[in-house]
Design brief:
The chain is built from 14 helices and nine strands. The chain is of the alpha/beta class. The protein folds into two domains: 208 residues, Spore Coat Polysaccharide Biosynthesis Protein SpsA, Chain A; 101 residues, no CATH class. Strands 1, 2, 3, 4, 5, 6, 7, 8 and 9 form a nine-stranded mixed sheet that branches. The longest helix has 23 residues. It is globular and about 70 Å long. The N terminus is likely disordered.
């Protein structure tokens, strides 16, 4: 199909589609019902063998642009075709089985217009099943953690929730890399982080449909390896040489990469802080963000040592270390430790309560 659109719009929404007849009607409708109207919806059909092409061509709305590939190019190639066709000031995505809530585009557009230092804005997400029923609560808690910090330990960004400034993509020649599928989205976020700050709105503005057979889950080890490849590059740019145990601290750990190594509290804390300091220097985190990062470091340390070495003596040692490390987050961390022992050892739980009261009094 020959595309000859030249008039710019506020937002280009890219919707890659392949054999999406079961859900694409709901996805398209969720865009057409947005409270923000200055957009184009670019739907790229990647040689579907079902009724997807027929369905998307049935829309007569002038904002809907339909493209059918001559050959199947895969998800990364399909997303890149959408990038090449987009003409909006901002680019947003919605996969052909997900749903955008009515204020999604307006909320993100308003945020990026008011905050020029941010080039990517995503949102919180809730999972739904094949029938559209809720399958989870919000994916992420309400906190002040900067996305760049979270990006160092996992993927804190849902593809369908993203809106970016198109000029950053074009100016830096960014795209989805075929050699990183099925973790091509995380790779793009790590590349984008080189050029801009990122933010996630706390509200749930996307319903993500959980379906069996997704590429990330059917090829899980491969997907984790590709994700960590991008993560390793991200961390290397931050601090240089990456610690050998770093992967076991990420969500890309495949439970075999640490080789059973035992890392001390002080070494692990030093690594967390080194990454944090590098991020502070690059992105200029606010004091509020720094406090959130420090609390998250303590939380990560507590979770790691309880999950890996959850013995009672180790818990007491950890309590003492965390108490002097960050008193502000101590009650929250102690709650995590209490929950661990309330489940595994009720007698030790009672002892811990006494210790906690004494430590609280000593800090007054």
């Amino acid at each position: 199909m020959q595309i000859s659109y030249t008039v710019p719009v506020g937002i280009s929404i890219i919707m890659p589609a392949y054999n999406a007849e079961s859900f694409i009607f709901d996805s398209i409708s969720s865009i057409l019902e947005q409270s923000y109207h200055d957009y184009e919806l670019i739907i790229i059909d990647d040689c579907s063998t079902d009724r997807t092409w027929e369905m998307i061509n049935s829309y007569k709305d002038s904002r809907v642009r339909c493209v059918r590939n001559k050959d199947n190019v895969g998800i990364a190639g399909n997303r890149n075709i959408g990038l090449g066709l987009s003409r909006g000031k901002y680019i947003a995505w919605l996969d052909a089985d997900d749903i955008a809530l009515p204020n999604r585009l307006k909320r993100q557009f308003d945020f990026l217009e008011s905050n020029p230092e941010y080039g990517l804005c995503c949102t919180n997400v809730m999972s739904i099943d094949a029938n559209g029923n809720p399958a989870s609560g919000s994916w992420w808690p309400l906190d002040d953690l900067p996305l760049e910090w979270s990006l160092a330990w996992g993927n804190p960004i849902a593809q369908s929730s993203v809106m970016v400034r198109r000029d950053i993509i074009v100016r830096n020649g960014l795209c989805y890399r075929q050699d990183h599928v099925p973790a091509e989205d995380y790779n793009l976020w790590t590349e984008l982080s080189r050029f801009t700050r990122m933010c996630r709105l706390p509200d749930i503005l996307i319903y993500y449909r959980v379906l069996p057979g997704s590429a990330f889950h059917t090829k899980r080890k491969y997907a984790l390896d590709k994700s960590y490849e991008s993560n390793n590059g991200f961390i290397t740019r931050l601090v240089g040489e990456v610690e050998g145990f770093h992967r076991m601290l990420t969500t890309f750990d495949d439970s075999s990469c640490d080789g059973g190594q035992r890392i001390s509290y002080s070494i692990m804390r030093r690594w967390y802080r080194r990454v944090a300091e590098a991020l502070y220097g690059i992105y200029g985190f606010s004091e509020r963000e720094k406090v959130a990062v420090r609390s998250d470091i303590s939380r990560k340390l507590a979770n790691h040592f309880l999950d890996k070495e959850g013995t009672f003596p180790r818990a007491i040692e950890l309590l003492m270390l965390l108490f002097f490390d960050t008193r502000n987050s101590f009650p929250l961390l102690f709650q995590r430790i209490k929950e661990h022992f309330r489940r595994l050892n009720p007698r030790m739980y009672s002892v811990l309560k006494v210790i906690f009261r004494k430590m609280r009094k000593s800090s007054l």
